[in-house]
Design goal:
This protein is an alpha+beta fold and about 200 residues long. It has two domains: about 100 residues, no CATH class; about 90 residues, Sandwich (Immunoglobulin-like). Helix content is about 40%, strand content about 25%. The chain has a four-stranded antiparallel beta sheet, with no helix packed on it. It has a three-stranded antiparallel beta sheet with strand order 1-2-5, with no helix packed on it. Strand 3 and strand 4 form a beta hairpin. Helix 2 runs antiparallel to helix 3, helix 3 packs antiparallel against helix 4 and helix 4 packs antiparallel against helix 5.
Length: about 200
């Protein structure tokens, strides 16, 4: 499509890592919008396979399952077989829950065993996907000013969740997205030169 070609042109000209990831995501989503569900799932599968065991890989699996659910709801080009095929909304919920439990919870459990933060860490939000709110946890190793912001998929700032000096320790905040539309969002922790960005999915 013209939109996909435009995104590809921007991708080829971009040196910005975050923008590049967003554009790659948008190109695949163009396939979804054009009801080319199998092509989109194939792209998500490639991303998942190339990033196995990482957040990027896990989110690609979430995207593949979500695309399969969309195809099921639309009745067009329905995905009836394969790893990411879903029979209905209940099957989707089960597979997403299993994926998040095996992919995200061990990391969160491991943090409970840490006594003193030794580095800046921004954890994956939970639940994810979420509707309408989710919890974001982070830790800082020293007293410092902390900013946590949320951006949409195009990099536009949506909200500032934290902007203040914090003592060393572990913290958690709630992000309520009742006024936002479904989609991929990014949340970012910044403290001095330390910048950490994560992706989350709002699914209504």
């Amino acid at each position: 499509s013209l939109l996909s070609d435009y995104y590809m042109l921007l991708l080829n000209e971009s040196d910005d890592l975050l923008l590049t990831k967003n554009l790659e995501q948008l190109i695949i989503l163009c396939n979804v919008a054009e009801e080319e569900y199998q092509a989109a799932i194939s792209e998500f599968t490639t991303v998942a396979d190339n990033n196995e065991g990482t957040e990027v890989g896990l989110f690609a699996e979430v995207d593949a399952l979500t695309t399969s659910l969309i195809s099921d709801a639309s009745g067009m080009n329905k995905i009836s077989s394969g790893k990411y095929a879903v029979k209905n909304a209940n099957d989707f919920t089960y597979k997403i829950s299993h994926l998040l439990k095996t992919g995200f919870l061990p990391e969160a459990q491991a943090t409970n065993e840490m006594n003193v933060p030794k580095e800046f860490v921004l954890y994956q939000n939970y639940p994810n996907p979420f509707n309408p709110s989710t919890t974001i946890k982070y830790q800082i190793p020293r007293r410092t000013n902390v900013e946590i912001k949320v951006f949409d998929i195009l990099g536009k700032e949506i909200v500032v969740l934290v902007d203040e000096i914090k003592e060393a320790g572990r913290y958690q905040i709630n992000f309520a997205a009742s006024k936002l539309s479904s989609g991929v969002y990014f949340y970012q922790l910044q403290s001095g030169i330390n910048i950490i960005t994560k992706k989350m999915l709002l699914l209504r």
